[in-house]
């Protein structure tokens, strides 16, 4: 399905507006390109973004922020979800996309998940011929980023 990425991301950001507000986290979009259309499975990519945003809000303390950035790449788009929350220990980073991986429970605010969200996200991005990666610094925040070919 051909999807207008800006409209698509706006809708997902609006969906999470209430949850972000309840947690005292500012959620915002940063669109560096407009009117870009990508062929993708909207339900599956929404599932990826839902997990990344849910994680970002869950691991970001009050007064923090979560920023969704859309940029153009040579052959498609890149979407990143950046937070300024708890971060992930360097030694754990290689394992975050593995099934059932969960970092230190003490850092989790509210409900603890099953540890499947990122493994599912990686499967979905792989199926779209994209790549997903993570950058994080403990105590400073985390950025998950994925690209999709057009
Ligand atoms: P599920 O998504 O299945 O409900 P989950 O959120 O625990 O459970 P994942 O989404 O796969 O599982 O995330 C795995 C682990 O990676 C999390 O439990 C957490 O320890 C860590 N993590 C993920 N995103 C972040 C983030 N933005 N900041 C800090 N830690 C994170
Ligand atoms: Mg999750």
Please give the count of helices. Answer: 3
Attached small molecules: adenosine-5'-triphosphate, magnesium ion
Largest sheet: 5 strands, mixed
How far apart, in Å, are the first and last alpha carbons?
Answer: 11 Å
Radius of gyration: 15 Å
How would you sum up this structure, described in words?
It is found in: Cell membrane. It comes from Lederbergia graminis. Its main location: membrane. With 150 residues, this protein is α+β, with helices and mostly antiparallel strands. The protein has three helices and seven strands. It has a five-stranded mixed sheet, with helices on one face. A two-stranded antiparallel ribbon has the order 1-3. A hairpin with a 3-residue loop joins strand 4 and strand 5. The chain is globular. The chain starts with a strand and ends with a strand. The model has no long low-confidence stretch (mean pLDDT 93). It binds adenosine-5'-triphosphate (ATP) and magnesium ion (MG). The site of magnesium ion (MG) has 5 residues, from helix 2.
Question: Secondary-structure map with pairings?
Answer:
Blueprint: E1 2-4, H1 5-22, E2 26-31, E3 37-39, H2 42-58, E4 65-72, E5 76-83, H3 117-127, E6 131-137, E7 141-149
Parallel strand pairs: 2-4
Antiparallel strand pairs: 1-3, 4-5, 5-7, 6-7
Bound molecules: adenosine-5'-triphosphate (ATP) and magnesium ion.
Residues 51, 55-56, 59, 83, 85-88, 96, 101-103, 113-118, 142 line the site of adenosine-5'-triphosphate.
């Amino acid at each position: 399905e051909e999807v207008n990425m800006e409209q698509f991301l706006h809708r997902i950001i609006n969906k999470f507006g209430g949850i972000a507000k309840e947690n005292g986290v500012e959620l915002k979009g940063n669109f560096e390109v407009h009117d870009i259309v990508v062929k993708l499975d909207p339900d599956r990519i929404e599932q990826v973004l839902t997990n990344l945003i849910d994680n970002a809000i869950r691991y970001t303390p009050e007064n923090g922020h979560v920023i969704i950035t859309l940029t153009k790449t040579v052959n498609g788009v890149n979407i990143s979800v950046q937070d300024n929350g708890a971060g992930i220990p360097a030694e754990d980073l290689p394992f975050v996309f593995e099934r059932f991986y969960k970092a230190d429970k003490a850092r989790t605010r509210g409900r603890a998940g099953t540890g499947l969200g990122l493994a599912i996200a990686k499967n979905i991005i792989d199926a779209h011929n994209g790549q997903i990666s993570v950058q994080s610094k403990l105590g400073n925040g985390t950025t998950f980023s994925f690209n999709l070919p057009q």
